[in-house]
Amino acid sequence: MTRPFRFGVVTPLLTDLPSWRERVRRIAGSGYSTLLMPDVPHWQPAPAPALAFAAAQADIRVGTWVYASPLRPAWSTAWEAHSLSVLTERRFEMGIGTGRPGIEDELRSLEMPVLPPRERLALVRETLMRLRELDGPDLHTPVVMAVRGPKAQALAAEFADTVTIAAMPDDTRAEVAGRVRGFHADRDVELALHVPVVGDDVAPFMAPPDIDTAALREADSLAILPDDPAAAAEEIQRRREEIGYSYFVFGAGSAERLAPVVAELAGR
Q1: What ranges do the domains of the chain cover?
Q2: Do 21 and 46 meet the contact criterion of CB atoms below 8 Å apart?
Q3: Which of 10, 81, 168, 202 is least surrounded, with the fewest CB atoms within 10 Å of its CB?
Q4: How far apart are CA 18 and CA 69, in angstroms?
């Protein structure tokens, strides 16, 4: 089954509050489905209050992209996610993973234990189980999982509504496509693609600022899209046709440039 396109924007609060509020409203008015916040301590407000505030400003879905499981107890993350589902009237999507590259240094700076990958994945499982308990039979908080290895993929096949296969910036299209095609679930799961670079613009929190955009183009990487809207629309359709992606996530700096693409493709 071919899923219709939808588009999300990672929109960290890096400006004054009135400017960010206006950006939230512009993104919602441009047809994007979801406004997303990264889970980065110290650099910006915490995701939960920021997302609750954003949901009150505009009629748009909100979500985490993504909670890092070792940063807080599983019950706390689950309670927060369930609460956001209730307070946003089912407009919240919980994105969760084991943490981006470099999470170990962040944990040390916070004087938190540096857990091995298997324990971080176990925290993801516990969080999801507690979330389902809190939701009960009358609420279903959509779960987005960022995964890479086979154990994480198996967990996503069990719990996730949406899956993004985590990739390194220099992974080739063929490498990522192979991992995506190797993902199997017994139900229909939405496939999401994290696109941190549009043209030569690198989105904050989505990729290292010193990333080599020319190398991405040479490798035919899925981490980059052309900045010409017509070319970007063509490439997005190619990625759904060839790999199955239907949910595309960009940085806020590219949201207005790609708004014509969203207007053309969203819901189709």
Answers
A1: 6-265
A2: no
A3: 168
A4: 31
Residue 222: both structure tokens together: 């899925």
Helix 150-159 and helix 117-135: axis angle, to 10°? 0
Distance CA 125, CA 118 (A): 11
Q: Cis omega before residue 197 (within 30°)?
A: no
pTM over 0.85: yes
Please state, in angstroms and rounded to a whole number, the distance separating the CA atoms of residues 262 and 258. Answer: 6
pLDDT in tens, the chain (268 residues): 789 999 999 999 999 999 999 999 999 999 999 999 999 887 789 999 999 999 999 999 999 999 999 999 999 999 999 999 999 999 999 999 999 878 888 889 889 999 999 999 999 999 999 999 999 999 999 999 999 999 999 999 999 999 999 888 778 889 999 999 899 998 999 999 999 999 999 998 898 888 999 999 998 999 999 999 999 999 999 999 999 999 999 999 999 999 999 999 999 9
Report how far residue 173's alpha carbon sits from residue 220's, in angstroms, rounded to the nearest whole number: 6
The superfamily (CATH) of domain 6-265 is Luciferase-like domain (3.20.20.30)
Beta strands in 67-196 (DSSP E): 67-68, 92-97, 143-147, 162-165, 190-194
